[in-house]
Design brief:
The structure is a single chain. This protein is α+β, with helices and mostly antiparallel strands. The protein is built from 39 helices and 39 strands. Strand 28 and strand 29 form a beta hairpin. Helix 29 runs antiparallel to helix 35. The protein is elongated, with a radius of gyration of 37 Å.
């Protein structure tokens, strides 16, 4: 893939077509479309020196419904592409900036200051806003209501402070975390706002803090300085007004882009004139790749476009200084308007958990209803005794007139009993679960980030966890949607083959002239070599050097001259340890373009220098200077770029390169048809072996043609209305009657470990779909090399350009898939669907979607080629709308953003194409192969841990609540509790919380080696073996039994004794804590000292807390534990409760593992007794029938 910043070469590569999608900004609908160039550079002619601007249209999709399939009629696309360029900027849609006059600029409308703020809170807003955000969780609202009810005298069950403590602790922990994160943002904002820049004040430059810079001021910045706001360039240290910009802070790309100052402002700065002028430009918007405006200066009106604006965060490179006028500041700069972060996503496991919480809520209401009804019945039966009953005493006899004492009538008593029951049983809904899940996810993220198996040494980058709430979803993925270029491949292009005038040069490769370090040029006594060495074709080098056949030599000369000149590459000289030797690093916006220039240099056509007016090329030791008279950048309709060169002999030629689909439409009809056919066959052969192809053309311009072009070019450049359309028309008129020079084949190598990774994912039951903009032959070739496709697969290919033909192809495909399954008796692994973007135009968002889904679901592999970015998102939604299966999308560039955000889990590859994909993703990593340890190891562990932890939290809270419930039934339904209120509060906070969190972070049901060796084990998450409705209800049943044992064993043991409530309450507390911790210990597979310390330490901590509580005289139950522990019956009860409670669970678990083991249990046994089991054939077999 390629980012929006890709240059024209990548865009025009006919097999590497990439339709670029800018988030919330534009929809590229042509399935064949390629990279858009963001620099939009133009080269002034020597005569006029007027800069052209290539306008690019954007459509705001933020608030509109998005169609993933679109008709190819072109009318919509034309409206999109001309929406910004065919209109004058109205006063309502523009802002006026008075150059060097910030007072007048801000006179009528005070524009935003340059201070930025990325923090969420201030000192005053933190508390209300943070609480408001936290109470979006319904469970928090529930516990707040409970705490409020407990403050009412009629309903007070616990102490008022004790009832608030659990919710307060959860809110406090979250608030502290949020405050710390926001403090870091505040600190970062302060550092940024207080940086200094040189601002023109009273005709001299003074240092000024960034936050004080205003719209209309002129600022000057030097090499390697960061631009503080969005500025329109006025002048640079380069006489032609060019500035080289690095956008690494904006999009992560380190390659240089070029920006230009207008000639009119350039002359004013150089002549030290006082600059005055008016800029009329569009209002601030999020479109970082477009700009529309005009400037009146020296009584001239000139147009402004994307090539004239430099955005905040960019860095000036290879230019001594630059001067610009501020047009957007602070939060109105384009980069800050785009600072919105990725889409918010929700874990599927947590969503399913909410369903069980609803069931628990219903169960809680049922318990409370039972208690209140029974309480009403009891009150009716004993209504004549209530006045004198000692423990109830309805009447207050302390006064002469005996009134009712805390008695509100039979109906209200039932109602109050219900509310009090809700308060007493409140922990049935586990409030601590939410904070526990957050802490567990943080711990899991730590281990994922520091996993050396997901560390890339080449880029020195580790795994990034950008969304903490998605960890467990990594263990349930069923579909992986992957981009190809830069994701499966390295996006490091290497020139391989050349077809020149119908001759294919794909022979043996060697070093140039036998030089181990390749071709070099001597410039001013220095030896200069290309930074990257490229092997060359011996025959091609021999033919050019011998010069026996002048026609062949001329053809080779023109071909490599086109590669060296028709680009926007900037040569950068790099020092070496030897002062007499230098390296030339070709900086460009696309790996494709860099590969072509390095190839030209390897064959002796070395680009030495580039300015806005000329280029210097060393051609086999002869340095030749060519005037750059004009350049037409790539656009998605033409799919070509062209450059006009003035030769030393005064001839003028235009060189064009582009996709084969458009280049063969503009060739000279009188050209030798054999050459054209040979070139086409070579292109097919190149793409069939996975190479990215490009066609090169040329024609010579007469003086009349050149002058006619120049006149049209300047008129279009200075047009204020329809500028993009006029420039496109000029380019189309120029790029006609071309002679085909040849074609190139560039290899984009597979990343290390991709075939093995895809094979592991498929064995894990994960379907891998590849969605790419490449042509079909290239995509299929990469499919074979990556083991995505195999020779045993039946391929169903759909390439159509009408609704009816698509319908027929889908029907034929369904028939073929059914026949294949019936005849072979095999499953869907034998079928692969290959479909192109043109067909998807007529399928997505239509009634044919259902047929596509049915066919695709029968296929193990789906390969979509020539697809636009929104079509990628449409394919993801095709699955999401029709299944509950989890989807994962992985890509590395801007054209993958929509796909990444639509998928349940989005992963960005931090590769060659900037950080747009990474910034929109949930997780980020450097290599595709890291998906294997991420999903098969960490994903499996995270899902197993989180699923178990949720069920365990339900269990441990329900056991405690049911013990309280049984007690209520034996105490006249008065809602009095034998368990100390502080023990009730600390139960979920101290007594049982820590072991849950520790096990949730560290538990490993199966080791890493087994998970990687047996990818089928991943299916446990896809089948939801760890967390499902059956396990939930079994857990509730087990909980019911354990609560009965925990309550009735002490009750029966101490029946008719003088034991008091606090004493038996301490017994129940210790018994339940011991029981739930031993229950957890039974399920732990991997023991270490931390798990030991957490489980046994929690039991010890509980004992200590009970002793401390009972040792406080002012609390009820003073010294109760000391009286109780001295009795041997107490210890018998503890042991009896644990044994009786856990025996059924132990028996069932043993029988299930013995007679119906899961794959995970088999693998776990194999780890423990590996040597014994592996010696028996067939002992370790996964349940293949499940796949």
């Amino acid at each position: 893939m390629t980012s929006d910043q890709s240059s024209s070469t990548a865009g025009m590569s006919s097999d590497g077509n990439k339709s670029v999608d800018v988030q919330h900004q534009r929809e590229e609908e042509d399935a064949d479309s390629s990279h858009n160039s963001s620099s939009h550079r133009s080269i002034p002619s020597n005569t006029s020196r007027a800069n052209s601007v290539k306008e690019v249209a954007f459509v705001d999709l933020g608030s509109k419904g998005v169609r993933y399939g679109s008709r190819k009629g072109g009318s919509d696309r034309e409206r999109f592409s001309m929406s910004m360029s065919q209109r004058e900027i109205s006063d309502a849609d523009s802002r006026l900036v008075y150059v060097n006059d910030p007072v007048k600029t801000n006179e009528n409308v005070e524009f935003s200051g340059n201070s930025i703020r990325t923090s969420k809170y201030s000192v005053l807003t933190f508390l209300p806003r943070n609480l408001f955000e936290q109470f979006h969780r319904v469970a928090y609202v529930y516990f707040l209501i409970i705490a409020v009810l407990n403050q009412l005298p009629q309903l007070a069950v616990f102490g008022r402070f004790a009832s608030i403590l659990p919710l307060a602790m959860v809110l406090l922990v979250t608030a502290v975390k949020d405050a710390y994160e926001d403090w870091r943002r505040h600190r970062s904002d302060g550092i940024e706002n207080n940086r200094l820049s040189s601002v023109l004040v009273n005709n001299s430059y003074e240092q000024k803090k960034w936050k004080d810079i205003q719209v209309g001021e002129i600022i000057k910045f030097s090499a390697n300085e960061t631009i503080p706001c969005d500025i329109v360039l006025l002048s640079t240290s380069d006489p032609t007004g060019v500035a080289y910009i690095q956008t690494i802070n904006l999009d992560g790309e380190s390659n240089l882009k070029t920006r230009y100052a207008k000639q009119e402002s350039l002359s004013s700065i150089h002549e030290n004139k006082k600059i005055n002028g008016i800029i009329k430009c569009e209002k601030p918007n999020r479109n970082i790749y477009g700009f529309l405006g005009n400037m009146e200066i020296d009584q001239k009106r000139v147009s402004l476009g994307p090539s004239n604006i430099v955005l905040r965060g960019c860095v000036l490179k290879n230019t001594n200084w630059a001067v610009g006028v501020v047009v957007y500041t602070g939060m109105e700069t384009k980069v800050m308007l785009n600072n919105s972060g990725a889409q918010s996503k929700r874990s599927h496991l947590e969503a399913r958990m909410n369903r069980e919480i609803i069931f628990l809520s219903i169960f809680l209401v049922g318990l409370c209803t039972i208690v209140s009804i029974l309480a009403g019945i009891w009150l009716r039966r004993h209504r004549d005794e209530l006045d004198i009953m000692p423990f109830y005493r309805r009447k207050d006899y302390s006064e002469q007139d005996a009134d009712n004492y805390k008695y509100y009538g039979w109906g209200m008593e039932i109602f109050f009993t219900f509310l009090m029951s809700v308060i007493v049983f409140q922990i049935m809904i586990p409030i601590a679960l939410y904070i526990s899940m957050e802490l567990v996810r943080v711990g899991q993220a730590y281990f994922m980030i520091h996993d050396d198996n997901m560390y890339d040494e080449t880029s020195d980058s580790r795994f990034q966890c950008r969304a903490l709430n998605m960890n467990e979803d990594l263990g349930q993925v069923k579909y992986v949607f992957s981009d190809k270029t830069g994701t499966l491949t390295e996006n490091k292009m290497e020139f391989q083959f050349a077809s020149i005038s119908g001759v294919d040069y794909n022979g043996e490769k060697a070093d140039f002239h036998g030089e181990e370090e390749g071709y070099y040029a001597k410039v001013d006594g220095l030896v200069m070599r290309p930074k990257m060495k490229v092997k060359v074709d011996r025959e091609l080098v021999r033919l050019f050097q011998t010069g026996n056949e002048s026609e062949i030599r001329k053809q080779i000369y023109d071909f490599f001259l086109a590669l060296a000149a028709c680009n926007t590459i900037v040569p950068i000289v790099v020092d070496t340890s030897d002062p007499s030797k230098k390296l030339i690093d070709y900086q460009g916006e696309s790996p494709d373009e860099q590969a072509l220039v390095y190839a030209a240099a390897a064959y002796g056509f070395m680009l030495i220098e580039r300015t806005s007016g000329h280029i210097t090329i060393d051609i086999h030791g002869d340095q030749q200077r060519f005037s750059v008279l004009g350049m037409h950048e790539f656009d998605s309709e033409r799919k070509r770029m062209s450059v006009i060169l003035g030769f030393p002999d005064s001839t003028v030629k235009v060189f064009v390169k582009g996709a084969d689909t458009t280049m063969f439409n503009v060739i000279d009809k009188s050209m030798d048809s054999d050459v054209v056919k040979a070139t086409e066959s070579h292109l097919y052969a190149y793409s069939s072996v996975g190479l990215r192809t490009l066609v090169i053309g040329m024609r010579e311009l007469s003086s009349h043609e050149f002058n006619q072009w120049r006149s049209s070019y300047e008129s279009a450049t200075n047009a204020l209305l329809g500028r993009a359309r006029l420039l496109k028309k000029v380019a189309i008129n120029l790029e006609t009657n071309l002679s085909i020079l040849g074609a190139s084949g560039i290899e984009d190598k597979l990343q290390e470990g991709v075939p093995e990774a895809i094979e592991s994912l498929r064995m894990a039951g994960i379907k891998v779909w590849v969605l790419t903009g490449d042509k079909q032959e290239t995509a299929i070739s990469i499919g074979y090399s990556s083991k995505l496709l195999t020779n045993k697969m039946t391929q169903i290919v759909i390439n159509n350009n009408s609704t009816e033909s698509c319908r027929k192809s889908l029907e034929d495909g369904l028939i073929m898939s059914r026949k294949n399954t019936m005849s072979s008796g095999e499953n869907t692994r034998s079928i692969a669907l290959i479909i192109d973007g043109t067909s998807l135009v007529y399928i997505l968002d239509t009634e044919l979607e259902e047929q596509l889904f049915e066919l695709a679901s029968k296929c193990a592999v789906v390969l979509c080629c020539r697809v636009a970015p929104l079509q990628k998102a449409g394919i993801v939604m095709l699955i999401k709308k029709r299944t509950d299966d989890l989807t994962l999308a992985i890509g590395d560039g801007a054209n993958d953003v929509s796909m990444i955000q639509k998928a349940d889990v989005g992963i960005g590859i931090s590769g060659q194409e900037g950080r747009q994909a990474v910034m929109s993703s949930d997780f980020a990593m450097a290599q595709f192969r890291f998906l294997v340890p991420l999903l098969l190891v960490h994903g499996h562990w995270n899902y197993q841990r989180m699923g178990y932890m949720i069920l365990y939290n339900f269990y441990k809270n329900a056991v405690f609540v049911l013990v309280l419930f049984w007690y209520v039934l034996f105490t006249a339904f008065t809602l009095s509790t034998a368990i100390n209120e502080w023990s009730s509060v600390l139960y979920s906070v101290i007594y049982t919380a820590i072991p849950t969190i520790v096990v949730g972070i560290l538990e490993q049901d199966v080791g890493r080696t087994s998970l990687l060796k047996h990818p089928q084990l991943y299916g446990a998450g896809q089948r939801q073996e760890t967390y499902n409705s059956t396990l939930f209800w079994l857990t509730i049943a087990d909980t019911l039994w354990q609560s009965i044992v925990a309550f009735f064993v002490p009750l029966l043991a101490y029946w008719k004794t003088d034991i008091d409530g606090p004493q038996i309450g301490d017994l129940w507390t210790l018994a339940v804590v011991l029981l739930v911790n031993l229950h957890l210990a039974m399920d732990v597979t991997t023991w270490n000292w931390i798990i030991h310390a957490s489980i046994w330490g929690s039991i010890v901590a509980t004992i200590i807390c009970v002793i401390i509580i009972d040792a406080i005289p002012i609390l009820p139950g003073y010294w109760a534990i000391f009286h109780l522990a001295g009795d041997g019956l107490f210890w018998i009860c503890l042991i009896g409760i644990v044994v009786a409670s856990l025996i059924p669970r132990f028996v069932v678990k043993t029988l299930m593992q013995r007679y119906k083991p899961t794959d995970v249990q088999i693998a776990g046994e194999a780890e423990k007794f590996g040597g014994l089991i592996e010696s028996r054939s067939g002992e370790i077999e996964m349940n293949e029938s499940r796949w």
